[in-house]
């Protein structure tokens, strides 16, 4: 594995660093750059990685630069790096939503559009913090086979990943996986509130919803049958589950999900503009 720099020390950077160290990557091959001293020192103390407040120093150290800054900062950060050091041979990985490969390469180009930097866009999700993430990756044509393997090793350290054949599909990944943990949280939150209405305590309501969701997810993970079949298997016609499912359908659950996911994609497209 190559030397890796993380520009930014937020939750996603932390999640990936945990996964990399747990997978056997030497901590001294990883450096974190962040203006907040507290965040980077915490990572250095916990995992033994190097740290600095200097994005340029971190980028110069690394073969792979993982951009974990907020989308509206990313092009400025890339421009500063490209103006300060020779980036030839370095792979840039972006986890920012709404910032395209073209925008990142333009910021890195030093006005040389004939020799563009290799860029991989990654859309991870928050369960990456537990090693249960789901990521979609898209590589620019400048990314080598070896660099693709490096990018995949990074995302596989925090869960599962798939390669996308078109950059536009990054927005679809946002809708299906990137933003999706919050959909489940919202559904669980609604169930928890209703459980409280039935007289269960706060602790009992949390446990009932949490364990049921965990069990359902594990049933999907450990069974190759279609999810629709798993649902049908526990939905006896005329029974209590059937009554609940029919009410969901009557209230338009499928349309709500479709509209919500479409809204996520539309917002990602707006951000890219």
Record field, number of beta strands: 8
Strand order of the largest sheet: 3-2-1-4-5-6-7-8
Average pLDDT rating: 94
- Percent range for helical residues? 40-55%
As for the number of domains, it is: 2
- Second-tier CATH architecture of the largest domain: 3-Layer(aba) Sandwich
Please report which band the strand proportion falls in: under 5%, 5-15%, 15-25%, 25-35%, 35-45% or over 45%.
5-15%
Task: Categorize the overall geometry.
Answer: elongated
Distance separating the two termini: 35 Å
What's the CATH topology label of the largest domain? Rossmann fold
- Please describe the biggest sheet, giving its number of strands, its sense, and whether it closes into a barrel: 8 strands, mixed
CATH superfamily of the largest domain: NAD(P)-binding Rossmann-like Domain
| SSE order | EHEHEHEHEHEEHEHHHHHH
Q: Counting H and I runs of at least 4 residues, what is the number of helices?
A: 12
Overview of the molecule:
The structure is a single chain. It contains 12 helices and 8 strands. With 273 residues, the chain is of the alpha/beta class. The chain folds into 2 domains: 4-168, Rossmann fold; 180-272, ProC C-terminal domain-like (ProC C-terminal domain-like fold, Orthogonal Bundle). The protein has an 8-stranded mixed sheet, with helices on both faces. β5, α5 and β6 form a beta-alpha-beta unit. α4 runs parallel beside α5 (101-108) and α7 packs across α12.
């Amino acid at each position: 594995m190559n030397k890796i720099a993380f520009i930014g020390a937020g939750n996603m950077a932390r999640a990936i660093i945990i996964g990399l160290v747990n997978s056997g990557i030497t901590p001294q091959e990883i450096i974190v750059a962040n203006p907040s001293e507290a965040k980077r020192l915490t990572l250095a103390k916990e995992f033994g990685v190097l740290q600095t407040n200097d994005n340029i120093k971190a980028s110069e150290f690394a073969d792979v630069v993982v951009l974990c800054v907020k989308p509206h900062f990313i092009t400025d950060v890339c421009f500063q790096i490209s103006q300060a050091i020779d980036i030839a041979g370095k792979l840039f990985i972006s986890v920012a939503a709404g910032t395209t490969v073209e925008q990142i390469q333009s910021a890195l180009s030093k006005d040389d559009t004939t020799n563009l930097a290799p860029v991989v866009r990654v859309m991870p999700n928050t369960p990456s913090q537990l090693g249960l993430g789901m990521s979609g990756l898209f590589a620019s044509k400048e990314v080598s086979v070896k660099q693709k393997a490096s990018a995949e090793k990074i995302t596989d350290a925090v869960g599962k990943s798939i390669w996308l054949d078109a950059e536009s599909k990054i927005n679809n990944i946002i809708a299906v996986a990137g933003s999706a943990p919050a959909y489940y949280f919202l559904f669980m939150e609604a169930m928890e509130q209703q459980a409280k209405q039935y007289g269960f305590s706060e602790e009992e309501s949390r446990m009932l919803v949490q364990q049921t969701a965990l069990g359902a997810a594990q049933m999907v993970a450990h069974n190759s049958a279609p999810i629709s079949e798993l649902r049908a298997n526990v939905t006896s016609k005329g029974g209590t589950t059937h009554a609940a499912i029919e009410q969901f359908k009557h209230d338009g659950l499928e349309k709500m999900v479709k509209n919500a996911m479409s809204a996520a994609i539309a917002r990602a497209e707006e951000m890219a503009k």
